[in-house]
Structure formats: C-alpha cells, structure tokens
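Its record is quoted verbatim for completeness.
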Amino acid sequence: MTNPAVQPPASAYFITPEKEATEARTLAVLVDNEPGVLARVIGMFSGRGYNIESLTVSETEHEKHLSRITIVTRGAPHVIEQLKSQLDRIVPVHRVVDLTTSAGATGESRPIERELAIVKVAGHGEKRVEALRLADVFRAKVVDSSIEHFVFEITGRPSKLDKFVALMAPLGLVEICRTGVAALSRGKEGM
C-alpha cells in the first residue's frame, strides 16, 4: 500500500515549456518599387510560420522608385528581432524600422497608427436610428445610403474600428472592408 502523502518525483514529460509572451509590433520597411519585392518580403514571414495581422504598401517616393511596406505582426521580442535582421538582408530592402520599439527608445509614445474601414449596415426602425447615432459618436461618415442600408467610412486606431464594428454587429452589419494600418513614428525624425 502506498502512502498518499508521498508523491513520486515529477517526470520531465509533464513539465510544460515556458512560452515567451508575444506582443504586437509595427514594422516599416522601405523597399525598391519593383515586381516581386512584396512577394519576397511576405514569403519570408510565411516561410517562418509567422502571421501578418495587417499589411499596407504604396509607392512613397516616385522619383527614387521607393515603396513603404507597413507590417503589423505578433511574436516574441527575440523572434521579431530575427525577422527584422532577415528583412534587412533582402536585397531590395533599404531600411527596416520597428516603429513600436523606436517610439519607446526615443521617449516618445507609441507610433501614430491609422486605419480606414468601410462598413455596410442594413436595418430598419430603431436599429437604423441607433446605427446612425453610433456613427455620429465614432465620427464615421455616411458615404452611401438607401432606405434599407448605410455604408459608413471610419478612420482611426485599429482598436477604435474594432469597437465600431462590434457595436454594429447586432444592428445589421453586412460587410466590412479594412485598409490595414498606416503608421509613422512621432517626433521630427523620418525613416
């Protein structure tokens, strides 16, 4: 008969590995505006099994043929550092800036982040009135309407858009289109 007060030694098989906390990071990547560059940058993330939560890209300097890619991803700090150094090694990449950490290093607050969403809501009666009232509170503009629906345009931090969409869901949310995050660091320094 075994003594219930005496426990056998813990097996290494039952020890769960500690997972490092993940955090959202906003990366700005300045690249040559050439065919295939975006695919190479995105392929680096997918090849390593990392998701991109938001992606925006556009030519920013027409004469120099440069584009800026803004990527929001999530990972452990050391993994993000590895991703940044691997991005830096891709030939058409000129510069990689972690806007999230560069803001903290200069004493400034988080980067300025904005996103645009177009939100379609269909409803009648009180739900229609409530959708208009909430749109006013969130400073969303009506860009299309009929007696059966509204299409709102809203800009702001991603968290603001998330709240607006959540409030519109029970009021007849039909469809959402979001642009992805555009971000700049605060202060006088540029990329």
